[in-house]
Amino acid sequence: LDSIASRDDFPSNVPKFVYALMHMHRKHPEAPWIFLSGCDTYVVPENLALSLEGLDPSHKLLVGGHPGVINGERFLSGGAGIALSNGFVRALAPQACLLLSEWIEVEGPRLQCSPCSDVTFAFFARRLGATTVTRPCFFAFWPQYYSLPPEGGGGEAGVLPEGCRGFLP
């Protein structure tokens, strides 16, 4: 796994995400949540905190936005980022290398999805008996994007989910 993670290519992103997650957990073992996102994800930290309110971080939770399905497997779309509870990360830590190997060698090829880090974390959640939670205000773009007219103009503007209106920066 170290040889995969040390490469500088697209398939190496899943091991890098997992290694980074384990590093963050070692440095901050009491952090209630760890949020993973791509470099192009728009995050308003205060809104993220509001989205996680009411959830118990000691439970094994994987929290994100709109779900997707690939080859029959449901996952939380990573485009909007994914929040992992302390309970999830604590359960993953002792099994991370084993589950990562299983993903790289078996599950990723079976689903024809590699690297697919968001699908990888959904696989981890299933193996750990974790709960996936969909929150309506996890956006891949800035919130106002969803209230713009469709590309080309002339159309009716999209509408933000009701609970997200107060989340605008």
Automatic annotation (TrEMBL):
Name by which UniProt lists this protein: Hexosyltransferase
Protein's membrane topology: Single-pass type II membrane protein
Family: Belongs to the glycosyltransferase 31 family. Beta3-Gal-T subfamily.
Gene3D superfamilies (alphabetical): 3.90.550.50
Subcellular location, record wording: Membrane
Domain of life: Eukaryota
Keywords assigned: Membrane, Signal-anchor, Transmembrane, Transmembrane helix
GO cellular-component term (any): membrane
